[in-house]
Amino acid sequence: MTGIHVAEVPQTRRWWARAAFVAIFCAAAVPLVAAGVLGTVALLLTGAGGVVVTVAGIYWFLISRGALRWFAIALAVIAPLVVLVLFIQAGLLLEVMIALALVLIAVVCARTALRERREGSMMTEYPAPAAQHPFLVMNPRSGGGKVVKFDLRRKAEELGAEVALLEGPGTVDVDALARDAVERGADLLGVAGGDGTQALVAGIAAEHNLPFLVISAGTRNHFALDLGLDREDPTGCLDALRDGVELHVDLGKINGRTFVNNSSFGVYAEVVQSPEYRDDKAATVLEMLPDLIKGDKGARLRAHVDGTTVDGPQAVLVSNGPYGGHDLAGLGRRTRLDRGVLGAVALSASSTREAVGLLRRATTRGLIQRTAAEVVVDADVPEIPVGVDGEALLLPTPVRCTIEPGALRVLVPRNRPGVPPAQPALDLVRLRELAWGHRDASSAKTAAAHG
After folding, report:
1. Going from the N-terminus, what domains does the chain have, and what CATH number goes with each?
2. pLDDT per residue over 254-313, tens digit each?
3. Is there a contact between 16 and 109 (Cβ–Cβ < 8 Å)?
């Protein structure tokens, strides 16, 4: 939920939010007061000019390519530095230092105000029976070669597991490998690889009510992180075979296919669909962003979120459980995976300016963010690109996403890092709501949609 009911806001959080705005006001006022009347006018013009140039630079960086893009980002970085130098040349070094300190105080106050109470974030642990015939699928190429680097195959076999490596020529049918293992008596399935492979085998484990072992040998391992596992030490995940507990977590379904993290439509799905995405994700996103943010590519979508219809969103993200309240891209963390609901985010920006505003969290116009039992995405074409746990797929429309509460028995080590509390984003809209207890029209509509 992005909207806030005033009565639900603790008074301390409201005062922290107000303190953040006061600190920002003082940070702007200190050099202006010290400069005098004539100096104030000059500093106001200088500061306003720096802000305009910086925002323009970010804007052109997002919608441009080639040399113009890099010139734009250089301009956005240099402009505030030039303003800082001009303030210092005006003899305001001490005032600038005080202003910067006040900005830091404002950031601390804002994060304190925006930090949600961490209530009931620990998932219930259940006793885990010892596996007699564990079967593990390992991808030696995943995560830059973590399977080989950490000698995972040998260590797993020493613990009594049968290991199948995904190597050699051709495409290995992971589904067939896992199902064959079940037929031969496997009483636990597991994967050392990326989230796409994790999701595929997790679906088979859930179908046969078998425990599932996640080994964090992929690149990003969002699923492992949200289970509280250590992404940097996949060996520790194997400890679950000798001293483990079970977590009963939800599974997402998209047109009958399992996903453990999220399914994305529109902008992000178009990026994932690019052949270059897997080799260089950041560069691919930057290359495609200008067309996508201006709406030059992709089918026109319609999203139906538990009775709410969103027509023409540029992006839709459906997640297995909601991400943090301010994560619009599925790149953050989920504090727990057993809430029994999907997370749904739909972004509709009619202009690049609105899109930038949403990315900066300076507005909620065009944002629908809520939980749901079902999300259906339709389009004006027979099939659309969908990113399912980072894998690029083409699925026939309409695409139906549902949730299966508690469907997967995940075996995890008894001793593991756990899920850290989420760090709040600097959301100006939410901070304003907290501070002054009112919402603009767009925020009110968003809150109403969240129910």
Report:
1. 6-114 (no CATH), 122-422 (2.60.200.40)
2. 999 999 999 989 877 776 666 555 555 556 566 656 665 665 566 789 999 988 888 888
3. yes
